[in-house]
Amino acid sequence: MRRILAFAQADLRERSRRPAFLVTLGAGLWAAWVFSPPNGARWTTFEMSGHRGAYGSAWLGGTTAILTTVFFSLIGFYLVKNAVQLDRTTGTGPLLATTPTTKAEYLLGKWLANSAYLATMVGVIAIGAAGMQLVRGEDPHLRPLALLAPFVFVTVPALVLVSAMGVFFEAVPFLAGGLGNVAYFFVWIGGLVGSDPRPDVIPVWDPLGVRTLTAEMVRGAAAVFPDVRAHPERMNIGLNIRDHGAWNLTTFDWAGIHWTAELLLPRLLVLAAAAGIVLLAAIPFDRFAHATEPPRRRRGARMRGEAAALPGEEAEPESPRPAHAAALPGPVFAHTRWPEVERRFDALSLVRAELRLFFAGTHLAWWIVAAGALIVTALTPRDVAGRLAAFGWIWPVLHWSALGARDRLAGTNALLDSSPAPLARQLPAAWLAGTLPALGCGAVFAVRALAAGDPGPLAGAVAGAAFVPALALCLGTLTGGRKTFEIVYVVLWYLGPLNGGAPLDFTGASGSGAALSFAAAAGAALALTALARTRRLALA
């Protein structure tokens, strides 16, 4: 137990010293403000047939806990899914592997650290909710137990489960990378479906605990308002923004939930399930047997003209070496200048090279599934094909996510930055290499629509094909990694193409209504990418 707590304490200290920790706490306070809109605002977060509870401790604690659970069960996973990988890449992991610590002890420590990190964020949001109760002024009497109980009994167990999922995904090799980032989004969707608060939905399970809270809150409103009693399923949870007008809701006083053993037992089972997931993760965990060693400067590397470098220091590119150079002494070769051969720039060859990099390592099964998605889109009725076409656009997500970060992940950014005109040549070639597969994803449905006399999907697909790789290049360049694009793209794909949200549908299946917006977004993303890379070149 001492080793487990030591791991947790060390990891939590390391996280709390990062600038991102302060940003996370600030985001928590901002969330508390967003989750409690005043009456007459253009947005609402929880309403039932035009009614809601007055902003007392019980109601604000309940609604803020629900929204924190829903949103941060997604965001929190990506915040904590890097603890094991950080030890792997910094070289700390192999050192820990030489100690008597078992795999289970190490992972349990990481789980506790993740849970404490997310619990800190929950505490900040709860404090913010108390502050918003005083700011809104609908009920100035603070009742700490009524306000904190929903966070303690619902939100914290849910985020402890999320922390366990983060450890599990890092311990399983094929889930540790981009595939796991995408897969968790669908796991999260499954958790929301299980926690669906509508009375007409049979609760198979409630891992997030949202149904527990909403059922009690709807019951309180039904005792006051006949329309809620007649139609308890008419509710809106989340950010509901009106284009025109404002939300003027009728309020009522709600005393809160009487927490019984029947309500608390499922939450204890969630905690037990989280611990079981962490122990299960110890089975596939490799205990850093395949850790990636950080780059180190080898002795004499600079004298021999090699490209090895210290962590955080760019490697020096190796000079062109003739065939007879092996016979030359190291210091002599290091100071020898060799004539450069002028070659004519070939844009088409560069695009072909970028396409080969884009599809490098792609298994045959990937191509079979991609072809199957296009065939299904071509053969199904058109009203169904538009929705099915969305699956073709999610399939290459891990290829797109590498566009803007491949050079840093492979350590070739110094070589690319030192090449002739990297912004004018390599950046457009990389964008085109990502655009062509995107055009292939939307071509079948767009051609079908064009043959039926509807050119809208074609314009939308072309704009979407320009937007997706531009977004990947921009986010990859700004963050130096793949995760941000994978998260943003999957969420956008779910809200737009998969659910038919026309303003967010970048595939063109909903027509050309959003084509101009996505074309403008593509141009802005490319401009921001060029600006960021120009700054990187200036600092090199």
State the low-pLDDT regions, or none: 293-336
- The pLDDT mean sits at 81
Question: How many domains in all?
Answer: 2
- Helical content stands at 55-70%
Fraction in beta strands: under 5%
Helix/sheet category: mainly alpha
Largest sheet composition: 2 strands, antiparallel
Give me the Rg, rounded: 27 Å
Shape: globular
Distance between the termini: 47 Å
Give the total of beta strands. Answer: 4
The DSSP helix count reads: 23
What is the topology, as strand order, of the major beta sheet?
1-3
Pattern of helices and strands:
HHEEHHHHHHHHEEHHHHHHHHHHHHH
Question: Any overview of this molecule?
Answer:
This protein is mainly α and 540 residues long. It has two domains: 271 residues, no CATH class; 193 residues, no CATH class. It has a two-stranded antiparallel ribbon with strand order 1-3. A two-stranded parallel sheet has the order 2-4. The radius of gyration is 27 Å and the shape is globular. About 8% of the residues have low confidence.
Secondary structure elements and pairings:
Elements: H1 2-16, H2 19-34, E1 43-48, E2 51-53, H3 57-80, H4 83-90, H5 92-97, H6 103-136, H7 144-171, H8 178-194, H9 210-222, H10 226-230, E3 235-241, E4 250-252, H11 261-281, H12 301-304, H13 330-334, H14 347-358, H15 364-379, H16 382-394, H17 397-400, H18 406-410, H19 413-417, H20 422-451, H21 456-479, H22 483-498, H23 515-539
Care to give the gist of this entry?
With 540 residues, the protein is mainly alpha-helical. It is 64% helix and 4% strand. The strands form 2 sheets. Strands 1-3 form a two-stranded antiparallel ribbon.
